[in-house]
Amino acid sequence: MKKWQRLVLVCLIGFAGLITGLPPQAQARTAQETQQHKLKKLHKEIGDLRQTVKKTRRSKAEIEADLRRLDQEIRTQGEKLQQLQTRQAVLQQGLQQLQGQSRDLAQSLAQQRKLLSKQLRAAYMQGPQSLLQLWLNQKNPAEPSRGMEYFRRLNQARLDQIDSIRNTSQAVASKSTELARAQASLQENTRQIATQQTALEEGRQARQKLALEVQKTLAGQEKRLTRLQKDARNLDHLLKRLAAQAAKRAKIEATRRARIKAQEQARLRAEAAKKHQTSTQARSESRRPAKTAVALAQLSPPVGGPILVRFGSPRMNGGMRWQGVVFGSSAGSPVRAIAPGRVVYAGSLRGYGQIMILDHDNGLLSLYSHIRGMLRETGQRVAAGEQIASVGQDPDQEESGLYFELRKNGRPVNPQSYLRSR
To answer: Where are the residues of the annotated region Disordered (predicted)?
Structure first.
């Protein structure tokens, strides 16, 4: 970077500091502190969100455990229900068999009763006969006893069969009643288990729905946590860059100060050496600054008009002081170069409007602010007294005028020490 470019950069940084009211180092520290505060707040938010995610994951685990428990209970109830249904089917089959057996016994009983009824009807039709009559009516003496015995045994067998059928019917009826009660009990148990299974299934569906909602919430929280962590990493990298830049600036500033100190020490040594020279040489050396000062004091002002604001006077925003002067001049008045030089900057700067900076060599820069209609561009040379622009109108000021500033080796100096008095 050329010498004049470094000087322009220093001037622009100084002008930016005037606008914000802080020097560049203070601005950098303020920006870094702001970012550090933001990073601290971001880390706190990440910590809080991590705790929330942890709680959400714990809730999700509890819900999943409840779902597993409900699934196990539903399977257990389903197995019980299946066992009851199997037993109920067996009882239903046995009941149907008993009902079939009862129908068969009822038909057999009806047949026996029908045969017995016919026999009684036949005996009634024959009329009452004594055993002597039955015996006398037989041709063979042995036949009466055989007939009577046959008749007795036949009746007895039928009576025994009727009793057996009746007993079997009663047993079947009793067993059917027992099976019916067992079946009713099984149906009640089945109904209760089915009700429990339905309630468990409803609970499972509710927990499943809650699990999905928790999963959705957890996914959103994890996504936000990932985004915040990424933001924190980016901000941390930014702070590291700012710290590196601040260290670099501090190193440059330390080097600059060391160089200035070395130059000052060299100057002091040179002055000490000059004191040992002859008195004539000492007087000659003492006259040179006055000659230079007289030459510098002959520079023409950039515009005609009174000085409204003087160098070093306090600014309205407090704390900072003016590093130049403000000439009162009507809008459109010509702005002229104070000395021969070259345009090193022609553009706009926030807070100063359109500005132009001229390099007059020997480390002297002149700045013209709040101008318009610039007639020269960066890199062009100008002559002393040549018009370079016109006075503009600053909307923030009541009166139009030109802000003018001189810098010697990057440091602001009082323009009135260099300009010719009117």
So the answer is: 269-289, 388-422
Which of 325, 386, 391 minimizes the C-alpha distance to 358?
386
pTM confidence score: 0.36
**In-domain check, residue 17:** no
Q: Are residues 189 and 306 in the same domain?
A: no
Q: What is the pLDDT of residues 132-179, one digit of tens each?
A: 555 555 555 555 566 667 767 877 887 887 888 888 878 878 888 887
Q: What is the CATH number of the domain that holds 392?
A: 2.70.70.10
In a domain, 343, yes or no: yes
Residue 316's H or E segment, with its range, is none
Beta bridge partners of 365: 359, 407
Residue ending a domain, choose from 243, 276, 309: 276
| 287, part of any domain | no
For residues 392-416, average pLDDT: 85
Instruction: State the average pLDDT over residues 311-317.
Output: 80
**303 shares a domain with 266:** no
d(CA 361, CA 340): 9
Segments forming the whole domain that contains residue 401: 299-417
Q: If you write DSSP's letter for every residue of 8-29 in order, what string do you get?
A: HHHHHHHHHHHHHTS-HHHHHH
Distance separating alpha carbons of residues 390 and 393, to the nearest angstrom: 10
Write down the pLDDT at residue 398: 66
Q: Are 386 and 337 in contact (CB under 8 A)?
A: yes
Q: Residues 241, 306: one domain?
A: no
Picking from 240, 251, 225, 246, the residue whose alpha carbon sits closest to that of residue 35 is 240
Distance CA(284)–CA(400), nearest Å, equals: 46
- Tell me which of 229, 261, 276 is where a domain ends: 276
- Residue 294 within any structural domain of the chain: no
Q: The CATH number of the domain where 110 resides is what?
A: 1.10.287
Residue 273 three-state SS: helix
Helix axes of 279-296 and 143-274: crossing angle, nearest 10 degrees: 120
Return d(Cα 339, Cα 359) in angstroms, integer: 9
Tens-digit pLDDT profile for residues 221-254? 889 889 888 877 886 776 677 668 778 888 898 9
Same domain, 35 and 144: yes
Q: pLDDT confidence of 289, banded at 50, 70, 90? A: very low
Q: Which of 411, 364, 413 is nearest to 4 (CA)?
A: 364
The proportion of the chain whose per-residue pLDDT surpasses 70, expressed as a percent, equals: 77
Residues whose CB falls within 8 Å of the CB of residue 382, separated by 6 or more in sequence, listed in order:
337, 340, 341, 342, 343, 358, 376, 388
- Overall residue count recorded for the chain in this entry: 422
